[in-house]
Amino acid sequence: MYKILANEPLVPNIHLIKIEAPAIARKALPGQFAVVRVDEFGERIPLTLADWDGEEGTITVLIMQVGTSTQKLAALNAGDHILNLAGPLGLPSHLDKFGTVVCAGGCYGVGAILPVARALKGLGNKVICIIEARIKNLLYWQEKLQQVSDELIVTTGDGSSGYKGWAYDPLKEMLEKGGKIDRVFAHGCTFMMMLTSEATKPFGVKTLVALNSIMVDGTGMCGCCRVSVGGKTKFTCVDGPEFDGHEVDWELLAARRTIYLEEEIRSLTHWECQRWYKPIVKVVEV
Amino acid sequence: MPRQDPKVRGKNFKEVALGYTDEMAVREANRCIQCPKRACVEGCPVYIDIPAFILAIREGNIEEAVTILKSKNALPGICGRVCPQETQCEIVCSLAKKGAPIAIGRLERYVADWELKHGSNPGSSSSLLPSSGKRVAVIGSGPAGLTCAADLAKLGHEVTIFEALHVAGGVLTYGIPEFRLPKNIVQNEVDYVKSLGVEIRLDSVIGKLATVDELLEGGYDAVFLGTGAGLPMFLGILGENLNGIYSANEFLTRVNLMKAYLFPEYDTPIKVGRRVAVIGGGNVAMDAARCALRLGAEEVYIVYRRSRIEMPARREEVENAEEEGIIFKLLTNPKQFIGNDQGWVTAMECYEMELGEPDASGRRRPIIKPGSEFIIGVDVVVVALGTTPNPLVPSTTKGLEIAKAGTVVADEETGKTTKDRVWAGGDVVTGAATVISAMGAGKRAAASIDAFLRS
Ligand SMILES: Cc1cc2nc3c(=O)[nH]c(=O)nc-3n(C[C@H](O)[C@H](O)[C@H](O)COP(=O)(O)OP(=O)(O)OC[C@H]3O[C@@H](n4cnc5c(N)ncnc54)[C@H](O)[C@@H]3O)c2cc1C
After folding, report:
1. Residue B74 neighbours by CB under 8 Å, 6+ apart
2. What average pLDDT score do residues A187-207 get?
3. Chain A residues lying within 8 Å of B165, measured CB to CB
4. Average of per-residue pLDDT across A270-275
5. Closest residue to B263, CB basis, from A252, A263, A286
6. Contact assessment for residue B65 and residue B111, using Cβ atoms and an 8 Å cutoff
7. Given a cut of 90, is residue A215 above it in pLDDT?
8. Cβ separation of A221 and B241 shorter than 8 Å?
9. Residue range A164-170: average pLDDT?
10. Which residues of chain B neighbour A223 with C-beta distances below 8 Å?
């Protein structure tokens, strides 16, 4: 059992959840994730570590409420417990002193990019963070990112704040103007990472993306998260989650992410019906 | 032994084999001639005193039978169900030549189930040796790890098991289905190991949360690796990443560990499929096929590239599968998978095969019949080609010799690896094998670790 220390809605649909997990917090590195199972009936879902504190013994994840598991997580309060938490999993991001680095984030990836940017800054890079949201009200963590970057560019789809467009737009502009960018890291939805990779490809700027495949165990045991990178099958959980965006078969990833669309709707409906009558989901220990 | 009717059991996940009644058990025990040869004991990888426990059943002293079994085997309820007795203790039974050997496995199961029903016999502290003050870390809670941990705890050492998943048991929990090995039986035997004083830390992925070296530096005197062979192999043919194609590990994990057969009560989904093809001919393939049937598939095929006699699955399980209506497509091998524009598998192109000269495994080599390609329509495929050890621990442990197949090199008699204070046993050393051979390796390693800790 792992105690929830905080659950704060950051923007509509995205929650910050802080969990007591000293052993994971001590070992976590940027780019890694944890697998969470909320209760006895729960799925195992991967969540990128958005922050951690080895001394305090805590980890922070950002969740976007989409399916049953994330709805369940969002409904928990500080003091509640989740049943299982395994990590830190996956290979850490490949960080080094590259020169000028762009860290692009969208959706929950705005949070996931924070530790990457912070570590890159610590290594002496010039860090430019670009974050995107559909509208102004969906932006979060600007101050936190400001602290770890030399420049923060905000983009919104409707232009209600900052640059009108998506994260790859200013990036493309910089490259077209001949700006020197040595490396790009992108965390976000599949589409955002694909577009970012497409934007940098003509300029040959290596772009690392954190893939968000469906997983079960998260330790390389099942192959559910297999993706094709450079024509080779890889497991996101143990070979990634970070891969070269120019080599990823995006169509395959997008297709594999839809495997359980129908079931996800059924599951959510089932849970909501249950919850309607039993307002509190009891965490049952097995 | 009574079994559920095939038509009924093909639609539920309840145990297929129902077990002996008291009368049946005594009748079977009475057949044992208590011969002086005791070949059965030699046939057992953990040397259970088989004639003695059978005698105890005959005398109506089941409690004594429990004690005899548990002195050698901490997991009799599991072994009684899944051990290949037909190639171990029963094949060498003196009665085997004259007709039917004693059904040792069924009697073992009977004794274990009796204990479960009549209140279990917790590892009483009186049977444990006084504390040695030594600490051992066991990685993995499959049969190898559980056995090694139980034996070391009985010998007075403080044992912690680190398990990556959220439930203990290894393949017994995530792989072998409920209808063949009910999970309450596994849980009960895990509880027995805990009652000996073994601590089990779940959600602990060694190699990530801590490395073996960190455990050794952090106060453990020895480490046993029982991490199994959990990495699935794929065919490496076109279309294998299409939606609807699973590794057997994923399919079985979803069903057994995550209880997808109870979806949506449990949150983890699985694609049921109308026509399911399972590729492979081992126990794992049989289990996957029988799960697919129980989930509600209309037709389930076993696609195997050799013929029936080369199938590595236990005969009993092949028969069970056949009775339930699984269709065997033998001498058939997939060439490629065909998908629709949404990325879902719709069909499988196969070759017909024929058998040539024996290969390295001693079985006749399957050869493609030229021009024999044909198409099978499928919407779910399960690839059950076998597994290799997960590299998480080997790749993060300095000084551990790894063989070509990814297995950890260890002495067969002692389980000692090339790294100081580290032992290994079970599937991680042999590659995918059996429950009982993993247990035997766990036992031998425990003896060797004990000797080392006392020296
Ligand atoms: C579907 C299926 C059916 C089978 N049927 C039979 C049968 O009928 N009869 C039979 O005798 N055998 C059968 N087998 C084979 C048998 O189950 C295995 O040989 C046996 O379980 C091996 O035991 P083990 O302890 O070596 O490993 P496992 O049972 O594989 O256990 C290894 C454990 O280690 C854990 N682990 C791995 N890496 C780490 C890590 N880095 N940190 C922490 N923990 C880790 C795993 O999560 C797992 O729990 C079957 C196997 C399968 C898959």
Report:
1. B146, B147, B150, B151, B189, B192, B193, B439
2. 96
3. 86, 217, 219
4. 80
5. A263
6. yes
7. yes
8. no
9. 94
10. 232, 234, 246-247, 249-250
- Mean pLDDT for chain A overall: 93
Residue-wise pLDDT tens digits, B234-260: 999 999 999 999 999 999 999 999 999
Question: What pLDDT digit, counting tens, does each position of B209-241 carry?
Answer: 999 999 999 999 999 999 999 999 999 999 999
> In this predicted model, what pLDDT tens digit does every residue of B85-108 receive, in sequence order?
989 999 999 999 888 999 999 999
Q: What residues have CB less than 8 Å from A262, skipping those under 6 apart?
A: none
Q: Residue type for B453, please? A: L
* Maximum alpha-carbon separation in chain B: 70
Confidence at B125, pLDDT banded by 50, 70, 90:
very low
Residue nearest to atom 30 of ligand 1 (CA): B228
Q: Which amino acid, residue B187?
A: Q
Regarding pTM above 0.90, the answer is: yes
Work out the burial of residue B246: count CB atoms within 10 Å of its CB; fewer than 13 is exposed, 13-18 middle, 19 or more buried: buried
Complex ipTM value: 0.92
Confirm if B104 and B85 have CB atoms less than 8 A apart.
yes
Cα–Cα distance measured from residue B168 to residue B162, given in angstroms and rounded to the nearest whole number: 9
The residue nearest atom 27 of ligand 1, judged by CA position, is B228
Q: Give residue A38 CA to ligand 1 midpoint distance, Å.
A: 25
Find residue B382's DSSP bridge partners. Answer: B246, B278
Both structure tokens of A91: 């290979």
Round to whole Å and give the CA distance between B270 and B68.
42
- Ligand 1 centroid from CA B44, angstroms: 19
* B297 residue type, one letter: A
**Alpha carbons A258 and A85: distance in angstroms, whole number:** 25
- pLDDT average, residue stretch B47-75: 94
Cis geometry, peptide bond prior to residue A241 (ω within 30 degrees of 0): yes
Q: Which of B203, B259, B342 sits opposite A85 (nearest CB)?
A: B203
pLDDT at A286: 46
CA–CA gap between residue B66 and residue A99 (Å, rounded): 69
> Residue A139: its pLDDT value, please?
93
Q: What is the pLDDT of residue B118?
A: 87
Residues of A whose CB is below 8 A from B139:
none
E runs forming strands in B326-433: 327-329, 332-339, 345-358, 364-368, 374-377, 380-383, 387-388, 422-424
Domains of chain A are 2-89 (2.40.30.10), 100-257 (3.40.50.80)
Chain B residues close to A87, C-beta within 8 Å: 205, 208-209
Tell whether the model's pLDDT for residue B37 goes beyond 60. Answer: yes
> What is the pairing mode between strands A45-53 and A33-37?
antiparallel
Instruction: Tell me the C-alpha distance between B298 and B128, whole Å.
Output: 53
**Which residues lie with the beta carbon below 6 Å from any ligand 1 atom?**
B 82-84, 139-145, 162-165, 170-171, 175-176, 204-207, 226-228, 230, 252, 283-284, 287, 390, 392-393, 426-428, 432-436, 438
Residue B316 has pLDDT above 90, yes or no: no
CA of B169 relative to ligand 1 center, distance in Å: 8
